[in-house]
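Support request, please re-run this one:
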Amino acid sequence: MSTEQPAEHNNAVKLKKFKWRLSRSKMNSILALCAILISAASFYATYMQAKAAQEQVAAAERQLYAETWPWLQVSYSDYDLEADRARMTVKVTNSGTGPALIKSMQFEFQGTTYQNLRALLNDCCSLDAYKAALTEVQADNNNINYMKKFGWYVTSNPNNALLADGNDLVLFAMTRSNFNSNLWEKISEMVPDIEVNTCYCSLLKQCYTVNKASEVKKVAKCSS
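Re-run finished. Output below.
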């Protein structure tokens, strides 16, 4: 008896095997594509999480920067409203939101630069001679406070001073009297023309320069 199958049956078997092989190939392709899509989705999710974390860090840094930003201003006045008398005052005020470490202040007048205001005023107006004369008068008579009566002056060196936000530091002050009227007038006329350049840093060690016009510029560091 012959075991040969009809030609139609053999063709059907071959076609079935071909279809099965094609289906497995497609399935493998689909699985590979799915793996690629899953990897891409995972990468994108990781990227978005990292980006969100960076944005949160940047926002926190901006907030910290805003909360610790100092802004120094130098101002001048020639009258004390509370005391209702002529009193010259030169002061630096921190109008920012954080403390300022003042590294240096330079004062320029008529082309000459001074490292402190007292040196400038002594050069132009013989401040030391005025101090010596007043001290001598006071030493001769202790019954009267000549320092107060004749108009004493106060000065301060702001270098390396830590100035809290909302506070000010008096650089020079002098009350006008009959004894010092000429000296007071001379200083009062020249002080508004003194150019002041200040370099200071925040608590985050970000440094700035500012001039008398309150123009602030960020710098890498303050030169010593």
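The longest helix spans residues 7-67. The two ends are 114 Å apart (CA to CA).
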